[in-house]
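Why do we bother with holo predictions? Because pocket geometry can differ from the apo form. Keep that in mind while you read this record for 1-deoxynojirimycin.
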Amino acid sequence: MSTTATLATLSDSDLAADPNWWRQAAVYQIYPRSFADSNGDGLGDIKGITAKVPYLKELGIDAVWLSPFYPSALADGGYDVDDYRNVDPKLGTLADFDEMAKALHSAGIKLIADIVPNHSSNRHEWFQEALASPRGSAARDRYIFRDGLGENGDLPPSDWDSVFGGPAWERITEPDGTPGQWYLHIFAKEQPDLNWANREIRDDFLKTLRFWSDRGVDGFRVDVAHALTKDLTEPLLSKLELTEANSGTDGFDDGSHPFWDRDEVHDIYVEWREVFNEYNPPRTAVAEAWVHATRRARYASPEGLGQAFNFDLLQADFDAEEFREIITRNLAEAKQTGASSTWVFSNHDVVRHATRYGLPKAAKGPADKKLAKGQDGKAWLLAGGPKDELDVELGERRARAATLLMLAVPGSAYLYQGEELGLQEVADIPDSERQDPAFFRNKGVEVGRDGCRVPLPWKVEGASFGFGDGGAHLPQPDWFSKYAVEAQDGTNNSTLELYRKALKLRRELQAEEELEWIETGNPEVLHFSRPGGWQSVTNFGDTAVDLPAGTVLLTSDPLEDGKLPANSTVWLR
Ligand code: NOJ
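The structure, written out:
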C-alpha cells in the first residue's frame, strides 16, 4: 500500500493490514494506573481501559500506547519491571489484557506496549538470583556489578549520579553477610541496569517481543532506548571528565559517552527489527532516545526501530520562530531516514502543556539554552505552583492552539491522557502522597512527575470523579470537576470536542507527508499548507489577525469579528 493513501480512503481492514499505519497515526498514551479503575481499589486497571474503548473510538485516535502494565512494586511508576511477560495482578490478568487488545482492535485501534529494556526491577528473579550468587557468577553477569574503590571497596566504582539524583551505584550485602559489590542503576536503585553484552539478556528480550506480538501488540515504545550498551572499561571516567568531553549542551554527538547513545546500541535494534518483520504487518517501534539531534535519525532507521521521539516541541516555548525551526528541521531529518516525524507536547514525564504555556516565557538566553528554557514548569512546581504566576486560561488557549497546529503537521502525533480535557498539572500534592522517585531522590531540586499522573476525572461529581468507585491513588483537586469528560462531552467549544473534531478531520484531510510554509509577513503568525489544500494558521502574537482565503474548518477558539485571535489556530481549506 502506498504511503500516500489518505486515511480517509482506507477501510478498517485496509488499515489493520497497512504496514505504514504508524506514519501519521494519532497515538494516545494511557498511563494505566491513572486512566480508569474498574474495581474501586484506587488504581487504574486493564478492565478499566477496556470499558473506555468506546470513549477512545469516539475520540478518534489510531493507536493506544500503554505505559508499563507489568508486575511491579511501582518504585518508578511501573518502569521497574518484575516480569516482562505478565500483567501486574493489581491491574488484571493476561486474559484481561487479551480482552482489551481484542476490544481495541475491534474498534480499529492499534496497541503499542511500553518495553523497558535498560533495567529490570530489583525484584526481578534475575536480580534476586544475582544477589544470592557469588561475585563473578553468571547470575551477576546479567547486571553490571563492580567492586568498589578504596581499601575496603566501600567507595562507589565512580562518582556518577543517577538520573533521579543521588549516586548511580548501590552497594549490596553479599550472601555471607559481608558488605559487597556495587551495581549500576542509571535510574532508581530499584532499577538495576541490565548487561546487554550478555547474550542471554538479548535472547530473552527477543522472546518478550514475540510474546506480546503474538498477543496482538502492534508496536513498542522503547524506554531509554539510548542507554542499553555501555563501555565500562576501567578506569571509569569521572563526572568532571564526562562534562568536559561533552562539547555541546544537548548530549554527546559522537557516541563516546560510556552509557548514553553508543553506536553499538543499534546492533540490538537490528535484531529486534528482524523479529518485528516476522509479523504482518511488521510490528513497529518508537525509541525514547534523548540524544543529540544529529543522532536521533539512527534510532529511526528502517533497519532499526523505525521511529524515534522528537521532544523538540515539548521543550520549546510557545514561540512562532522556535516552532517553525523545529518543524522544518525535523521534517527534513525524517525524510533522510525514511521515517516519519513524531510530535509530542505532553507525556507522563513532563508538566502538562496547558500549564507550561500559562507560565511566563523565559527570557531568551543565548548562552545556555537549557538554563534559558522557561516553560518546562519545573521551577514553578518546586516553588509550590504559585497561582499568581500561572495564567490558566492563557495556558489552555495556547495548548489548544499548539495541539491543532501539531495535528496538521505530517508525522505521528502522540497525545497524553487528559490533554484532550485541557487538564492542568496538579501542583499541590502533599509530600506525604508523592510517589515519584525523582521527588525522593532529588529533594529540593525538583518535585517530580506526579502532578501529570493524577487519575483522570470522568464525572463532575462522585468518588474520584468517576475514575472508579473508590478513591484515587494520587489526590485529585476539586477543580478536576470542571475538566471532567462528563462536563465537556457534547459541550460546544470544549477542549474534548475540539480534539474529537480535529482528530476526525485529520483523518479525512491527511495526505502526503509534505508541508509548505506560506509567508505571512508577520513573525508571530505561522501558516502552512498540506497537499489537498489543508491549511493551518497559528497566531502566536497578542493581537487578532486577518484570515487567509479559504473555508474555515476548525478553530482552536472562536474567531473574533472574523479574525484569528491571539494564541489560536485555524484550519482552512
Ligand atoms: C523514561 C520513562 O518515560 C520514565 O517515566 C522512567 O522513569 C524512565 N524512563 C526510567 O525507566
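Residues 1-6, 364-373 have pLDDT under 50 and may be disordered.
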